[in-house]
Amino acid sequence: MISPYIYYALVGAFCATWALRARRRSNLLPPGPKPLPLIGNILDMPREKEWFTFAEWAMEWGKLVSVNVLGQTMIIVNSVDVGLELMANRSGNYSERPDIPMAELATYTESMTGAIQYGTYTFFRHRTHIHKAVGTPAAVRQYEEALELEVGLFLGEVMRKPEQLHAHIKHMVGSSIMRIAYGHESQQNDPLIRLANIVMEEFSLALAPGTYLANMIPALTHVPAWFPGAQFKKTAQKWAKNTRRMQDEPFEVVREQMRQNTAQPSFTSRLLTRNPNPSPQEEEAMKSAASSLFGGGSDTSSSSIHAFVLAMLLFPDVQRKAQAELDAVVGPDRLPTFADRKDLPYIDAMVLEILRWHPVVPMGVVHRAKEDDMYEGYLIPKGAILLPNAWFMLNNPDTYPEPRKFDPERFIATETHKPAPDPTDSCFGFGRRRCPGRLLANSSIFIACARILASFNIEKAKRDGKVVEPVIEQTTGIISHILPFECSITPRSAQAARLINEFSS
Ligand code: HEM
């Protein structure tokens, strides 16, 4: 029998070797705020709008910053080059998402592209279907007419009820996606859009790190739903039911319309035309890919268009320049269309500046390292979570001088000026998980900006003859929205009002 002294000596040696190895490994991690024993950097972590604190850390520690939260290593990526090297060039190692128990319970990990695990059948089918539908300039061109139509209708709503501008933007974007996904013509207060918005709110609650204990203690997911305190399981079941409805209802409508030859061309009708009798697994992938278009595209694009309105309010010279370009190229007798885009370099550059000035996904969407990796002498351990700091990449004064100034000209080449780096290299994420809707997003923002500026003047509101300064606040969370602010939005002329009426009736 082994002597207890030898036993203790062996255990002691094992623990010391393990501790030494752990210390050596932690010495190899990228720099960052000093962690405390056990809890790590939890006290350093900002509670909200973390991108502002992370930007300060980027200035202090550089391209890669590491923190440890309750044992979980997080690596904040602060430069586009590093983001591309890790998440694009080495994408085989960095395309997974971390496990989020509430997302799994609510079935989002089987249905929402952004939450589905890399490497699964559903993931590849989603990416293939979405790429075919909106992943190339030619594919997006199919939807230009629908986008022009939706923005035309939106202009009429804004003219009639300007005080509801923010709601009109949200409706216009949601409505465009429903038309693209299902050929669905939406109504005011449309039940389908309402359901989709509810599912999106539930989805973001499921992903919020601190809201549900089950996200921090995954073992809780094994507790039965009837167990006291397991209310979160019932909540997740309700969310799963809503997601099911959001996928099934519009899909079945399109299938029925196709039987009756009344379906409008759409993402779903094209999938069903190519494959009218899909296997159950493929049908699930088709349905969930269609509903993921709304998930990925509605809150993001509407947040960009809100930011555009705010920028016009705060930078009236930019507004005037853009309107002068529209007047010279399009004139007062019609609304701008996609065919004008090649002749509108200022508006084109404005789209890039909107994506830079207000990064709507300021901390990107997290990726997870599959295996240990080294980058420039730093260890990125297996299981580490990568947070692409898009806000800093797009507001780094070394890349974009005076970053809080809204200046489309930074993207226009002149004889003396090289255009600034393209924000679409970072604001849409990286590698095999990069946003598959980025071209559609770009087109939606372009046509909304061009048509809004051709039709309206956007100014600070006035009350009792006095200018009301807008209160500018943005929300925290994966998608950051600018909160509604007061402004005056009025037709530029009687002719503009006539055109709006013509296009929206
Ligand atoms: C301003 C508009 C938009 C922005 C800023 C944006 C940004 C992003 C970002 C940062 C990601 C995560 C990429 C990564 O993990 O590295 C993403 C993913 C995604 N986006 Fe977008 N997006 C926008 C519009 C759209 C639109 C219009 C659609 C579709 C119609 C869309 C569909 C998706 C989908 C399905 C994913 C999940 C991809 C995956 O996990 O593999 N997005 N987007």
TrEMBL record:
Source superkingdom: Eukaryota
Cofactors demanded by this protein: heme
Pathway: Secondary metabolite biosynthesis
Region (Disordered) location: 259-294
Residue spans of biased composition, Polar residues class: 259-276
Bilayer-spanning residue ranges: none
InterPro entries attached to this UniProt entry: Cyt_P450 (IPR001128), Cyt_P450_CS (IPR017972), Cyt_P450_E_grp-I (IPR002401), Cyt_P450_sf (IPR036396), Cytochrome_P450_fung (IPR050364)
Flavoprotein is among the record's keywords: no
Chain segments annotated as coiled-coil in the UniProt record: none
Alphabetized UniProt keyword annotations: Heme, Iron, Metal-binding, Monooxygenase, Oxidoreductase
Family, similarity comment: Belongs to the cytochrome P450 family.
Protein name: Cytochrome P450
Native source species: Hohenbuehelia grisea
